Amino acid sequence: MVKKIVITLWILFFVVILTTVVIFICITKGWIGYMPAIEELENPNYKFATEIFTEDEQLLGTWAISDENRVYISYDELPETLINALIATEDVRFDQHSGIDAKALFRAIIKTGILRQQGGGGSTISQQISKMLYSPNAENKMERFFQKPIEWVIAVNLERYYTKEEILTMYLNKFSFLNNAVGIKTASYTYFGCEPKDLRCEEAAVLVGMCKNPSRYNPLRFNARVEGRRN
């Protein structure tokens, strides 16, 4: 009897492994969900606003056709305090993984999926980029569940074609900080009236804190909540 149970468990184990492998192969081939081509991964579609300056190079404002009022910023223009805060908050093992943080993912599955506790997210910065670029807003939890493995594959591909610095730059240029502030450069001007390089440590912490949930940590509406998150 015990032998039959053990054999059955091993069979179930191999079936799960085989099914998982087949699913990820199908995702990689684009047979399940949308898988961007290499050319698209190497050249993601960004929409940047036009900056308008005076003769003495003072910024008057920006103009954009789309609703994404984004102004490009390079990695060299990003302050170290902002980069360090982002990694510490959103992806503490950013320099160690290749798109998927197995430890964080396992923790999230155990705490959130099994224990029903707030265990923090398991998504890496690369996974968050893949969600922003290629995942439409899910209508329900089941749809969001099926989007996750597709984002894992895209995140691994992003790590293959981009350096860590490029991934951080991509994330901070793409993220929406609400109030028509898309990207870190526009957000810095919108909330603090300065370039990202001129952000004080606590100001950088406020903007990074918004990455968790921009609506919940909107500095124009929830000062006490934002200060608690920042500190």
Describe this structure in words.
The chain contains ten helices and two strands; from the N terminus they run H-H-E-E-H-H-H-H-H-H-H-H. The protein is mainly alpha-helical and 231 residues long. It folds into two domains: 1-32; 36-230, Penicillin binding protein transpeptidase fold (Orthogonal Bundle). The protein has a two-stranded antiparallel sheet. Strand 1 and strand 2 (59-63) form a beta hairpin. The radius of gyration is 21 Å and the shape is globular. The model has no long low-confidence stretch (mean pLDDT 83).
Features:
231 residues, mainly alpha, Penicillin binding protein transpeptidase fold, 2 domains, two-stranded antiparallel sheet, 10 helices
Mind sketching the topology for me?
Blueprint: H1 2-29, H2 38-42, E1 50-53, E2 59-63, H3 80-90, H4 102-114, H5 125-134, H6 141-161, H7 164-174, H8 184-192, H9 201-210, H10 223-230
Antiparallel strand pairs: 1-2
Helix pairs in contact: 3-9, 5-6, 5-7, 9-10
- The overall pLDDT average reads 83
Beta-strand portion reads under 5%
H and E order: HHEEHHHHHHHH
Gyration radius, rounded: 21 Å
Give the second-level CATH assignment, the architecture of the largest domain.
Orthogonal Bundle
Per DSSP E runs of 2 or more residues, the count of β-strands stands at 2
Placed side by side, the strands forming the largest sheet appear as 1-2
In CATH terms, what is the fold-level topology of the largest domain? Answer: Penicillin binding protein transpeptidase fold
Q: Unreliable runs, pLDDT <50, ≥5 residues?
A: none
Kindly report the name of the CATH homologous superfamily of the largest domain. Answer: Biosynthetic peptidoglycan transglycosylase-like
- Summed up, the helix count is 10
Given the helix and strand composition, which structural class is it?
Answer: mainly alpha
Query: What CATH first level of the largest domain would be assigned?
Result: Mainly Alpha
**Oligomeric state of shown chains:** single chain
Indicate how many domains the architecture comprises: 2
Proportion of helical residues = 40-55%
Describe the largest sheet.
2 strands, antiparallel
Overall body shape = globular
In angstroms, what separates the terminal alpha carbons? Answer: 58 Å
